[in-house]
Design brief:
By secondary structure, the protein is of the alpha/beta class. It is built from 2 helices and 9 strands, in the order E-H-E-E-E-E-H-E-E-E-E. Strand 6 and strand 7 form a beta hairpin.
Length: 115
């Protein structure tokens, strides 16, 4: 299983999110995003680029909502610190080993440790 450290601040954020959003079946989903770029045009026809860098994404979801819609969570789920986590690793680096889930600037973030 992947080794992921979860800070007390991240656990507090998870707990507060569950309470604030009245989440029935919480799932902390963590996945790697390759990043993306999207080109659109403003009202004057000028190009507007929106870029999202590659990096880890972390959020708290409600499995009850997914199940009510007739779906099932596509990734394996593990129990950590009393919560269900979905750790969606890639076949190639980066991996979870040595990563830390933290809470900074109002959101959950994943930090990779230096090798």
């Amino acid at each position: 299983m992947a080794a992921l450290t979860v800070t007390p601040e991240a656990l507090a954020c998870i707990r507060q999110t569950i309470e604030r959003e009245a989440i029935q079946k919480p799932l902390v989903a963590i996945a790697w995003s390759e990043g993306q770029a999207d080109l659109s045009r403003d009202a004057s026809g000028n190009p507007v680029w929106v870029r999202e860098p590659a990096g880890w994404l972390a959020t708290v979801l409600d499995l009850a909502e997914i199940e009510e819609a007739g779906g099932a969570w596509p990734s394996s789920v593990v129990e950590l610190h009393g919560y269900k986590f979905s750790l969606s690793e890639m076949a190639t680096p980066p991996q979870f080993a040595g990563c830390t889930l933290a809470y900074e600037e109002g959101k959950l973030v994943v930090h990779e440790s230096a090798i």
